Amino acid sequence: MKHNLLFIFFLFFCSATYGQGIFLDLPEKDLSTSQGVPFEVPIVLYNDYNHNVKVIVEWKSQSIELKDHAEVLFGKRLIDSGKLTIEMKAGEEIDDLNARFTFLEGLEDRRYTIKITDLQNHQDIQEELVFTVAPVDMDQYIYLDEHLQVGTMYPNPINTSGWLQYELFSSVEAKIVVHNVLGTQIGEFALSPFDNKVKIQVGNYKEGVYFYSLIVDGQSKATRKIVVQR
């Protein structure tokens, strides 16, 4: 009788715990990106326990000698400290977690470790991401970093209007300022976080050479020439 009760308890324990844990879902482990272009990797976490847990998400480079930038977006929060603590409810799935990587120098393959630590149940999950980094054609950009990228003006020469494509990756204030050859500002165009291109109107400009500058948080980052032709 005693052995039967122990066996029943063992079966109950196995059925109650089998398959439970914290699960990590990543896309392909071998990824391709371009130098200087931010690349986002979605991270999905699932708490299969029937109780709340606290987990630590860590991301660490195995190429620390290279100039890289890694951060995690959790909803609208931006975390660049390399570690994030999350409290998960029983059965909860978190699918608004994204790791963002920007490789600013070197074309060597990058290896990043994503580690999940379940503090209550002493469970660790670890996955490795491998990035193949390709060179980027800088002639297509006037500015590129982990916060934003701005393409060159097209068309150029311009008749009545031109376009700049851009991507904002963080909450910076950016704008395009147009000057004439004397340095007098004659136009200003904000880069909205709700769009990815800006129209530069030059219909009332005289024919000639002008310059447009990218201003980020009050600082000039790049200046290029445009030609207005009728």
From TrEMBL:
Pfam families the record matches: Por_Secre_tail
Name used for this protein in its record: Secretion system C-terminal sorting domain-containing protein
InterPro entries: Secre_tail (IPR026444)
Domain Secretion system C-terminal sorting residue range list: 153-228
Organism: Persicobacter diffluens
Highest taxon of source: Bacteria
